[in-house]
Amino acid sequence: MHDLHSGEQWPVFDRLNRDQQEAWAIFGVYSNYNWLPDSKGVVIWAQGKIWQVNIETREAREIPFEADVQQSIARAPRFQHPVRQEEFEAKMIRYPVTTPDGKWLVFNAVGQLWKKQLPNGKPQRLTTDEGWFELMPDISPDGKWVVYTTWQDTTLGAIRKVPLRGGKSLKLSHQKGYYYSPRFSPDGTLIVYRRGSGNAQLGFAHGLNPGIYWMTEAGGEGNLIIDDYAEPYFNRAGDRIYLFYDSYPDKTLKSVTLEGNDPRTHFTSKYATEIAVSPDEQWVAFQELFNVYITPYPKTGGSLDLGSGNKAIPLQRVTRDAGNYLRWSSDSQKLHWMIGPEFFTRELARTFDFVDNATDSIPPPDTTGILVDLFVPSDIPSGKLALTGARLITMKGDAVIEDGVIVTDRDRILAIGPRSAVRIPADAKQIDLSGKTIMPGIVDVHAHVWHFSNPIPPQQNWPYYANLAYGVTTTHDPSTTTEVSFSQAELVKAGKMVGPRIYSTGTVLYGAEGDFKAVVNNLDDARSHLRRMKAVGAFSVKSYNQPRRNQRQQVMQAARELQMHVYPEGGSFFFHNLSMILDGHTGIEHNIPVTPVYDDVIRLWGASQTGYTMTLVVSYGGPSGEYYWYQHSDVFNKQRLLNFTPRPIIDARSRRRTMLPDEEYVHPGHARDAKKLTEAGVKVNIGSHGQLQGLAAHWEIWMLAQGGFTPLEAIRCATYNGAHYLGMEQELGSLESGKLADLIVMANNPLENIRNTESIVYVMKNGRLYDAE
After folding, report:
1. Which domains does the chain have, with CATH numbers?
2. Which whole-number Å values give the CA distances from 250 to 117, 244, 288, 698, in the listed order?
3. Alpha-carbon gap, residue 469 to 475, rounded angstroms
4. Cα separation of 264 and 671, whole Å?
5. What's the distance, CA 68 to chain centroid?
6. pTM above the 0.90 mark?
7. pLDDT tens digits, residue range 579-605?
8. Which of 87, 216, 565, 769 could form a disulfide with 586 if both were Cys (CB 3.0 to 4.6 A apart)?
9. For residue 253, what are the β-bridge partners?
10. Which residues are CB-neighbours of 153 under 8 A, at least 6 positions away?
11. How far is CA 9 from CA 1, 2, 6, in A?
């Protein structure tokens, strides 16, 4: 109480629950309270009850309260998603460009350049080179050459060119570096490109003097135009360079001379993420909030603002759902773009009624394009292995097999059981694992594995190695860059990168402001967003803080129609979380911000099919759980972690640590709630949130044990439950005959001490055995 006259303060009730002051609290930091009419008492909520507190005697009396509540809970969408295929369709097709005659399409997929004769030709490799990734092609005006960038982890990047007919390439750049976006001049004699400074995944060596450069088509030393970061291409005359700046708060298209002089601003935009001027400079196309628009290019001498709501000049939307990688035909009469594996073209004559040869009526945007139709063999090992003598934590129910045998054939488990019951094929290589323990590979369903916006992937991606080394064989990233995550997922599938299985929602369906926000005002909006994500390979989306409940419900209905999962951002919004359960979301991502929860929440959630991924390493409502492990262990001395993680990333978090009394951590309380939810039928999963690649997944398992989960229950959350959450439990999550061979071999038994999950010796993913060190 606070005396307004004297300023004195004193306690009258000390049984309040923990409030929300350590997180954001949009709905208030605590339940409201109120005075009684006689001003002698206060009514307040605490410990799951309503109390009347006498402010003079400090006596608290429970006010009995009972409500008969009936709620309708929508069924959560949950579909089976195939994991294993002998070959897969490449869906993340990037950087499409056509020949001047429009007969050939050149593009990037699974790390290489391909060409396809339009419309129905079979894709074929453009080069015969091996050993590096090939990206960002452009075709010379005479249609004879393709210029592009390459990346190799040890020799770094280069600019190369190859004849359109194919074969060995020629190196044009003289210096190691980070090269992006080469484009020919209109006469084919010059090439403009961007030189980068490096990044945390590719490195920073040889990253001096970044900027926009030009060279002759024969190659040589680059000539600096401007030391800036932008996407360059030539103007019609070839004497200026257009520069697109994808910056905040406004995007701009500028131009400069080849000497970097006479800067001019041509267009600005709040939301455009691509601006493409036609070769004849009569038209401009732009991408805004995923969709593509075309408008004439008026020569006003000043800057124009581009936006879908512009009424000053003619404007047409040409996509139904989305379009990426905008490129004009050489005659400026057609605009091309990609969405997933489909190549789209829109002619000006089908877009505006005032152009030559215009159609009688303007058709709506096309719903289908030309299918690239590229299928790539999956990386599947050959041969048989027999792992003998280990304890097998199968996750098939509670079954634990002593002195067990697992036989794998290629990527699947051929047989599993006690040694006495399994016949080992004569052609199987045997590995004696006596005294060790095997469990299924970890399924991290909330794993941010550094799929940032850099368009060039490393050949060896350290977050992938770190996760594999700690037994994470399947990851699902619920917020990342679409183009990067799905292209790298296909590289892993094809065996061109080593890593766990990579799944993702791609870029979130963002409900706030930004150039990537997903506007959802009706069911058709929601369908459009989910269609564009499914086109690139997503089976799930992340509904991220869509503010209105009806918006979230529209996303859910679209997901049911398209057979997709919805993993919403928990957002530390308790009431949103409850409505997400009622509306049938596939799961709740991040812990609900209050603890403890009581029977009303337990019973409601238990009656649903909504899963729960707490990511306790970043706990809402109090100190994040990761600080506990930094406080109680010398993370900076873990050799396996150091083998696969850059030391600065480890040292920055672990050497000078946040320290606090153990009772102030909130994650044990959230874990205790999760234990009650588990007993009520809710499937709890683990998600490491990318806090420390690989090791943080084990922290999640250990924190479940701190909340009362048995070791077997905690391991189930990290394996079978995660596979079920993703709709993959028929092939992953347990050690059973016929399932995919994902497993962890540990030196010590985690059923005796859950911390033994870290004692990893080997990791098998997809039937291929790796040394964990």
Report:
1. 1-66 (no CATH), 87-377 (2.130.10.10), 441-505+567-730 (3.20.20)
2. 39, 11, 12, 42
3. 13
4. 58
5. 42
6. yes
7. 999 999 999 999 999 999 999 999 999
8. 565
9. 244, 267
10. 202, 458, 459, 460
11. 5, 4, 9
